[in-house]
Specification:
It is a single chain. The protein is globular, with a radius of gyration of 21 Å. It is built from 8 helices and 12 strands. It starts with a strand and ends with a helix. The relative contact order is 0.12. The longest helix is centred in the N-terminal third of the chain and has 18 residues. The protein folds into 3 domains: about 55 residues, no CATH class; about 50 residues, GTP cyclohydrolase I, N-terminal domain (GTP Cyclohydrolase I, Chain A, domain 1), CATH 1.10.286; about 130 residues, GTP cyclohydrolase I, C-terminal domain/NADPH-dependent 7-cyano-7-deazaguanine reductase, N-terminal domain (GTP Cyclohydrolase I, domain 2, 2-Layer Sandwich). The strands form 4 sheets. The protein has a 5-stranded mixed beta sheet with strand order 10-7-8-11-12. α2 crosses α4 and α5 packs antiparallel against α6. With about 250 residues, it is an alpha+beta fold.
Length: about 250
Amino acid sequence: MTMKVNGFVKTNQQAPSINGKFNGTAVRNIVDTDIIGDNHIATCIDTPMREDAFLLNDEQKIEIIQDKFREIMETLGLDLRDDSLNGTPYRVAKMFVQEIFSGLNPKNRPKISVFENKFQYGEMLVEKNINLNSTCEHHFLPIVGKAHVAYISSGEVIGLSKINRIVDFFSRRPQVQERLTVQIANELKKILKTEDVAVVIDAKHMCVSSRGIEDESSSTITAEYSGVFERQDRKDEFLKYVALGK
């Protein structure tokens, strides 16, 4: 069963098994989901979340993940008695909860204040080359690149650094680049009360460069245009600004 709560998709799923063993349907489902992962396909705009996602606090989540990751390392054959490896389960758990996946928690959503556009600036404002660090939800490997964002004020503006914070918040969760692009655009439209928003992301995926095809040279570009940016002349103007100084 799935439902939406506060922009997150909540899911309740049971392990597809019979007497502790995978049935034929389960095997087909695993194959299907593997195909989705290898093709980097997103299944929804909102981040899929369980109904009980926020019942545990950060400390409780870190403790659970620490134990589970210790099991993973031991299963791989690593000797956690070694001084270099002994603290790794805790470091990974803390990193997952408080750093690279901190964007899963709505409490970490940046607090954005809007201000009156007193200068009556009516052209597009472009924030380019915003650092983007995210994680592929299919293989839990890094996505690294740049985001370029533009908007035209409908009477209100936000601080420049707040655009970076919005990009960072939605990046810090397991992601698909297409979904990330749309989420950033939708958040800006909601905050600024305007449809005139454009977002372009150019990123490299380590699930492409370090596994599978192992192509280190390619990057992925996604874009979301709305409002006046759907017009070709405005789109071209934005892309010209993004290309300046590269």
